Amino acid sequence: MDTAQQEATARARELQRSWYGEPLGALFRRLIDDLGLNQARLAAVLGLSAPMLSQLMSGQRAKIGNPAVVQRVQALQDLAGQVADGSVSAVEATDRMEEIKKSQGGSVLTNTGQTTSSSGAPTVRRVVREIQSLLRSVAAAGDIIDAADTLAPAHPELAEFLRVYGAGRTAEAVSHYESHQS
């Protein structure tokens, strides 16, 4: 790899870090390890071609262009956390990955079984992930943090909202959401 390619790859990985919290190679390798997948299976679940996944992992491409794929990545990260803490078994994880693979993204306003609890209300996690997805589709995490820093002196609560939902982890955002419900 020549110097120009190395610099382009380094830039792409830095952009990935600002948009997704870490380079996609590290994120995807962790999902592969945590969920017992191979690259081909991960690509299939995400709805990416194997070459596209490889380009994202190697830093040849910086951004996931399809918002539904970004939502699937977030869903797989949540699932990996649930497998790690023991709240979801390996068998359940396999079933959930099939659901994630079939998901098209979408709004909390749609009333499908995947977006609602048994009472018919959207689940807190789903609402939070929709808020995160919307914010992240508008701006990169680094830009959201910059906006939050700008707002913080006059509007600290709004700045906190942007930081938590725009650049934080889903678990933190769920806690924030639950603490602000009356």
UniProtKB/TrEMBL annotation:
Entries under InterPro entries matching the protein: Cro/C1-type_HTH, Lambda_DNA-bd_dom_sf
Entry GO MF terms: DNA binding
Bias-annotated ranges (Polar residues): 104-121
Origin superkingdom: Bacteria
Keyword list, A-Z: DNA-binding
Region (Disordered): 101-122
Protein name, per record: DNA-binding protein
Organism classification: Bacteria, Bacillati, Actinomycetota, Actinomycetes, Kitasatosporales
